[in-house]
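Look at one such:
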Amino acid sequence: MGHATSYTFSENGVVVGQGDLTADTPDAQAATLKVEGKAKGTYTYTVVFTNAAGSTTSKAMTVTVTK
């Protein structure tokens, strides 16, 4: 797919962050999502990376908040 030009983070299927990336091959890219102050429960996160060729969705990451 090549390097992404944008990303979209989702929490339990709801968009919670998005932004643009520089498609600067061969340098690595990074996108971060700060998560804090969540109520007890289970949250599932994914990120979709997009460029002119299409989109790729990450594997889901599940986080359980216990305190």
Q: What stands out?
A: The chain has one domain: 6-65.
